[in-house]
Design a protein that fits this description.
By secondary structure, the protein is α/β, with parallel strands linked by helices. It has two domains: 1-77 and 169-250, P-loop containing nucleotide triphosphate hydrolases (Rossmann fold, 3-Layer(aba) Sandwich); 85-166, no CATH class. The chain has ten helices and ten strands. The protein has helices at 40-47, 70-76, 93-98, 109-114, 119-136, 152-164, 182-197, 210-216, 234-238, 241-248, and strands at 2-11, 14-24, 29-33, 55-60, 63-64, 78-80, 170-174, 202-206, 220-224, 227-232. The strands form two sheets. A six-stranded mixed beta sheet has the order 6-7-8-3-9-10, with helices on both faces. α7 links the parallel β7 (170-174) and β8. α6 (152-164) packs parallel to α7 (182-197). The chain is globular, with a radius of gyration of 19 Å. The two termini are 32 Å apart. The structure holds adenosine-5'-diphosphate (ADP). The site of adenosine-5'-diphosphate has 10 residues, from α1. This is ABC transporter ATP-binding protein. One of its GO terms (molecular function) is ATP binding. Residues 2-250 form the ABC transporter domain.
Length: 250
C-alpha cells in the first residue's frame, strides 16, 4: 500500500530522516517507535505531504506520490489525524464531524449545491454519517456537547471519527494514547482494531505507550537517528539490543 524508498529529509546539513525504506501492507497496523529525536514525526510529515523530502520516493497504492501535497493525498485516501483546531472547540462533536470535507469531490456539499436540488439530501447524508460515526465511537451522548468540553480521550475518539468521515484507507495516528485515561484508552484501542479488522483501515501509528503498541501493532518499526533500526513483531523488536541501546542513549 505504501512504499518508502531511501527517504531523506535534511534541515540544513542535518538529516532528520536519513535514508528510510519501509513498506506498509494493506490491513496492517504498523507501530513506529524510537527515542525522541529519532525522526518519527518528520517521517510522518513526509508521508502526509506536509514536508517535501530532500531525496527518495514515496509510492501509495502503486503511484508515485513523492511530491503531492497533503490535500491531494487526502483525496487519495491517505489521512493524518490532527488535533481538533482551536476554532472548532466551540462547535459540537456532531458539527465537528459534519465539517470534515468529503474525500470524493463529487460528494461535496458545494458541488451538490450547484446541482441545487441535491443539497438537502447531501446534508442529510452527512448528518446521518456523522451520527453513525458518533454511535460507533460510543460518543452519541456527547453529540451536542462542544468539542472544547470533551475529555482528552473523547477528543482522540472524535479525531478518529473525523478520519472515518472521509472513508480513509491509510490513517496516520500521532501518539493516540497521549493524555488519554485508562478506560478511554481501552475503548480507543478497541475502535482502532475494529476499523482495521472489519472495515479495512490500514494504520501507521507513532506511540510511546508500549502496551498499546503490543496490543495493536504488527509489524513494529524502531527508528533511531533518522534510520530504520529494525522491523519485526513486538517481542523481536523489544528484545533487540540495538533498540535497547537507542533508548538508553536518548
Ligand atoms: P521524533 O518524532 O522521533 O521525536 P522528530 O522527527 O521530531 O523526531 O525530529 C528528528 C530530528 O530532527 C530532531 O533532532 C529535531 O530536532 C530535528 N528537526 C525536526 N524538525 C526540524 C526542523 N524543522 N528544523 C530543524 N531540525 C528539525
Amino acid at each position: 500500500m505504501l512504499e518508502l524508498d531511501g527517504l531523506v529529509k535534511a534541515f540544513g546539513g542535518f538529516h532528520a530522516v536519513d535514508g528510510c525504506s519501509l513498506r506498509v501492507n494493506k490491513g496492517e497496523i504498523l507501530g513506529l517507535i524510537g527515542p525522541n529525536g529519532a525522526g518519527k514525526t518528520t517521517l510522518f510529515n513526509l508521508i502526509a505531504g506536509a514536508l517535501q523530502p530532500t531525496s527518495g520516493t514515496i509510492r501509495f497504492l502503486g503511484e508515485d506520490v513523492t511530491h503531492l501535497p497533503t490535500d491531494a493525498l487526502f483525496h487519495k485516501g491517505l489521512v493524518r489525524t490532527f488535533q481538533i483546531p482551536h476554532e472548532f472547540h466551540r462547535l459540537t462533536a456532531l458539527e465537528n464531524l459534519m465539517m470534515v470535507p468529503p474525500r470524493q469531490p463529487g460528494e461535496s456539499l458545494f458541488a451538490n449545491w450547484l446541482a441545487w436540488g441535491k443539497v438537502r439530501r447531501a446534508e442529510e447524508e452527512v448528518h446521518r454519517k456523522a451520527e453513525d460515526t458518533l454511535a460507533f465511537l460510543e460518543l452519541g451522548h456527547v453529540a451536542h456537547e462542544r468539542a472544547g468540553n470533551l475529555s482528552g480521550g473523547q477528543k482522540k475518539l472524535l479525531e478518529l471519527g473525523r478520519t472515518m468521515m472521509t472513508d480513509a484507507q491509510l490513517v496516520l495516528l500521532d501518539e493516540p494514547a497521549a493524555g488519554v485515561n485508562r478506560t478511554l484508552l481501552r475503548k480507543l484501542e478497541e475502535k482502532i482494531l475494529i476499523l482495521n479488522r472489519e472495515r479495512g483501515y490500514t494504520f501507521i501509528l507513532i506511540e510511546h505507550d508500549m502496551e498499546m503498541i503490543e496490543k495493536l501493532c504488527d509489524p513494529v518499526v524502531c527508528m533511531a537517528e533518522g534510520k530504520v533500526l529494525i522491523q519485526g513483531d513486538f517481542h523481536t523488536v523489544r528484545s533487540d539490543t540495538r533498540v535497547l541501546e537507542a533508548y538508553l542513549g536518548e
